[in-house]
Design a protein that fits this description.
single chain; 16 helices; mainly alpha; globular; 315 residues
């Protein structure tokens, strides 16, 4: 009896090489290379510097030859007399911005979405977006001019309307409110771009069906618009939760003064003073490492909580 003929593998049965998708989508991967290189150089390679947090770093000896001290820097930071103050200020300011600043771009996007005159809509968008392109140095100078005790426009307006003219940049009771208002002024308009893009993807047929059923405009917003953009809102919210310890270094550093240190000294300003004014670079790296760990934990916790209530998280 003759042996059975051996069947050669066909293209349907031959296992696909691991590099086949790379060849098929080679141009897409080539477009990805510049961004990946930038991410590697500016995000991943600097992580080597986190070892400073576990060393007694000296510039003259460099990162490699500085002696290891383990968790000594973390003990110094946690036992610092300023630890409770700066943690409290950081969390309070971040929560104030989360509560009062985060919803503003959503409201602005909903309002702009209802504007039908394109020329007016574009004009309003330009005015709202413009402050984002100004540095905090410029915004801070404008805030000082507007809030000057005697000549400030806003100060005089408050004096004429309510009879009070608080020095909002020198008064500890109102300084945090000033941070919230200036942050809304600078960034709220730019944040509306994301939510306007989400609103552009809402199916117009839903609004037509709601109109036929007799739904009013506010009902359409509540039952159609908001649920449609909720996934985007959830993702942005989770990312904001992850940055709970980033209260805004540039803004506070520009507007801060010794009178309001007790209500405005945060982790980032403490890090700046420790590293660049006192030369304690290891403490600065320790604070940065602590912020990264807490931020990661907050993102994971927020994502878990969002998924538990039935919404789609980041991952």
């Amino acid at each position: 009896m003759s042996a059975p003929a051996t069947r050669l593998p066909t293209s349907a049965t031959r296992p696909r090489a691991w590099y086949a998708p790379l060849i098929t989508h080679r141009y897409l991967y080539l477009m990805l290379v510049p961004g990946a290189v930038v991410l590697l150089i500016y995000r991943y390679l600097p992580m080597y510097g986190l070892t400073i947090a576990f060393k007694n770093f000296r510039l003259s000896r460099g990162i490699w030859r500085s002696p290891w001290v383990g968790f000594e820097n973390f003990e110094r930071f946690f036992n610092s007399p300023f630890f409770e103050l700066i943690i409290t200020n950081t969390v309070v300011i971040s929560l104030l911005k989360l509560v009062f600043v985060f919803p503003v771009p959503i409201v602005l996007a909903l309002m702009l979405n209802e504007v039908r005159a394109n020329w007016y809509k574009r004009g309003v968008q330009t005015v709202l977006y413009l402050p984002h392109f100004l540095s905090w140095v410029v915004i801070g100078h404008l805030a000082v001019v507007f809030l000057a005790p005697q000549t400030g426009v806003i100060t005089n307006l408050l004096r004429d309307t309510i009879g009070l003219a608080p020095n909002m940049l020198m008064d500890p009771a109102s300084f945090r409110g000033t941070l919230v208002l200036t942050d809304i002024w600078k960034e709220a308009g730019w944040g509306t771009i994301i939510f306007l893009a989400a609103l552009a993807g809402v199916d117009p047929d839903l609004y037509e069906a709601a109109t036929i059923d007799g739904a009013r405009k506010l009902q359409q917003i509540w039952y159609i618009t908001l649920p449609s953009i909720l996934p985007v809102v959830v993702i942005i919210f989770i990312l904001r939760i992850g940055n709970i310890l980033d209260a805004g270094f540039e803004q506070i550093f520009i507007l801060q003064n010794p009178v309001v240190y007790d209500v405005s000294e945060i982790l980032d300003t403490y890090t700046y003073r420790a590293a660049f004014q006192e030369g304690q670079y290891s403490i600065g790296a320790t604070v940065g490492f602590f912020k990264s760990v807490v931020g990661l934990a907050m993102v994971l916790a927020a994502n878990w909580a969002i998924r538990k209530v039935g919404e789609e998280g980041v991952f």
